[in-house]
């Protein structure tokens, strides 16, 4: 560790202490465990650049602190199930959950909305008081009939439970079984009530389990092309701004056949067919590792993580994926990397000089706080801090592969903490969500939404990297940041 | 290769490149088990038929694309409009993340609120500890001047008692005994965001007026109601009332809350009705609501305290503004200044200048009940013909008021009122009985795409256009803003439809 890093690390330790001072005692002790500075990597572990798993994670948020987290429903309907395009996803309960999450994750898809695809629709049982008092099963029963009648091309239905469902004792599994027989389609009940677990994360897990129990374990449903030697599934890519498409292109170019895309632009058939693939490629480990592990156990399909943010990781990932196949594929991977090298060079030549040395603080969900780090590295940018809304210990361990010691780490950061950290560190860019965007920008610090790509994207793949570089440049180098101070200063006031 | 560093293509153009188009087609053909294109076309056409409309409007349980949100959103919005006030929602935490996102996406502003983060254990044992710790943490970290508590449906289903919880939290020292913690039960399975707004407003007045003796004065309280244009509208309202010399207290003034400057400082609290003003509001002569359906309980509460009350339907347009101003003169004995009369004349002048483009245009309108009423009323003044008026959160009383309004003008005779219906129903309605223009919020863009009817965004939420909320829609000047938005849409459409190359017909330079 050089001396500047040591200073920085010490200053950051001190900053953590300062920020914690605002809390009542009991809460301070709890929050303390979630904030840390990345430590030097142990000498016996060359795979990691720093030790980041010193923080506690996946623990209940404190009441009243302004956690940025969402809930299990958000993890299931919003993340895992919502993008499956040819199914109707019922937000089962009161109107709000479905209303606020309506079309907000930018899961792009092809298809005709309302006819054969349904992602950008808000479909709800709109619970009223009587449904709470007398139970909602009858309503759900009727709602499924009405969906079957109005959307004949829908391939299936999922029932995304909102908080009341688990509290009033409804039996959505029984209703789903009965109705699936009646309408002859897949119906998936999902127990993703918002009060379950501590964040979106349990919702991902529950959604994965429901895919296992209600889709994969169903007999004889997978139809379609004959399995081939190069069949793979892309798992945990939600096609935000078209990410999965920019990824798919590269995999197809190297000769692989992407038989399923989970769950951005996905169809039920692709999910059903998944167990016949040769390899599962997982991008968002946090939200879909469960189903990969299951498929490995049950069908013997290996899975591997990959990272399509930024050219260094894209190339490394393409090579690692190719290693799982024959020489032809390996040669193709090299061809693909070579083909895109001029684009990479041109993007770096244009944008790196404009971004070199700029510092970044990240606070995102369960994957990007580590996965996008090397894309910033490629542009010469430096990560000052990073943290996750809903990571687990294994995510923090993996984070050490990507970030340097001395980086500030914050788990389930509170509004107060993030504001203070940003204020003190004053990075050149913050990447986080819509709730964080405007407070940060008011401070005069450039910001990009890193959940929704700030309505841009894709950011995956080589095509996406060009957009990523452009967006970071336009955020940081826009002239608006120079206009914040009135020229007459304080004197004239 | 479609991408280049010189001209970076993002999603808007990238996916129209042949490499991607071919890939989409291949994916669909090989892997999606998609229905054949003719079948998609057939079903698509069928969804726009009268036959489908009957099934669609006959739905008894299923709700598709509703134009309403849940109570706590309104409570958070109402709570935000007071000085140093922090909204605290008791229940699951994901809800609060949603309210904050929803408001931030509309106003393009910070939206602060906290949750008591209840989980499974709280579902079993109740959320008392979450309230105790939550109030303590929020008070310590965010130094609010008051904390406005509402509830998610989780807390309502398990029956948490806010009053008792807050008292116990105070006893435990979470916040000082005399610290204001108004509260409202806001079950998401009753009513909508406009009821949550009402309940929170009532809760706030209950807290600040409790045990105080009313000394009737001359002041007027005004409740703006839940309004996506609140920033522009509340400022316009204050400006008009200042011109009249009327002393008013805005109850929940969010105009500065959702419009803070960029000067290097993040203001978590900005503006808002001062707590002294809320206390003083008890002595007001009257409380006036700009939106009846956002304030029914609150006005009842004001009446119980001896105040006169009056309510309006989102005063927009000539006569609605006339009525509002005259009601204010009746209440206060002031007169309407010539400057406002001049503004009125300018609005009428604008309407007269453009009447040939407005007369006979047909409209579908959706949104909150008061907004839809206001919009219909203004369109009738322009010679426009509302044909479909829809409020998912409108009930029988609203429907009756709408019918009376429509019966008052020959331009309203062909209009149908759709209380409780959603936007998927409106799709069928507009597909079978088309109109020239659609007025509503951003969710209407799917109707615009499916049916080709141009959408004018005048209601909350507006996510996909920026800054409209900064301009008022109320009053005479607000009506000019609305008028210009409608006319721009009409003229843009006219140009788009007449601009075909190879001819020069109807593409007029002067209109």
3D architecture notes:
The complex is a heterodimer of chains A (493) and B (511). Chain A is α/β, with parallel strands linked by helices. Chain A has 20 helices and 16 strands. In chain A, strands 1-14-13-12-15-16 form a 6-stranded mixed sheet, sandwiched between helices. A 4-stranded parallel sheet of chain A has the order 5-4-6-7, with helices on both faces. A 4-stranded parallel sheet of chain A has the order 9-8-10-11, sandwiched between helices. In chain A, helix 10 (243-253) links the parallel strand 8 (231-237) and strand 9 (257-263). In chain A, helix 1 runs antiparallel to helix 18, helix 6 runs parallel beside helix 8 (172-183) and helix 9 (200-216) packs parallel to helix 12. The longest helix of chain A has 29 residues, at 327-355. The mean pLDDT of chain A is 96. Chain B is α/β, with parallel strands linked by helices and 511 residues long. Chain B has 2 domains: 70-311, Nitrogenase molybdenum iron protein domain (Rossmann fold, 3-Layer(aba) Sandwich), CATH 3.40.50.1980; 355-496, Nitrogenase molybdenum iron protein domain (Rossmann fold). Chain B is 48% helix and 11% strand. Chain B is built from 21 helices and 13 strands. Chain B has helices spanning 11-14, 18-31, 37-46, 50-57, 71-80, 93-107, 120-125, 128-142, 153-158, 162-171, 193-209, 230-244, 275-280, 296-304, 318-332, 338-358, 369-381, 396-407, 423-432, 445-451, 475-498; strands spanning 63-64, 85-90, 113-115, 146-151, 220-223, 248-250, 286-289, 308-311, 362-366, 385-391, 416-419, 437-440, 455-457. In chain B, helix 17 links the parallel strand 9 (362-366) and strand 10. Chain B is globular, with a radius of gyration of 25 Å. The model of chain B has no long low-confidence stretch (mean pLDDT 97). At the A-B interface, helix 3, helix 4, strand 5, helix 5 and helix 6 of A face helix 2, helix 3, helix 4, strand 1 and helix 6 of B. Strand 5 of chain A pairs antiparallel with strand 1 of chain B. Chain A: It holds the Pfam family Oxidored_nitro. Chain A: Keywords: ATP-binding, Iron, Iron-sulfur, Metal-binding, Molybdenum, Nitrogen fixation, Nucleotide-binding, Oxidoreductase. Chain A: One of its GO terms (molecular function) is ATP binding.
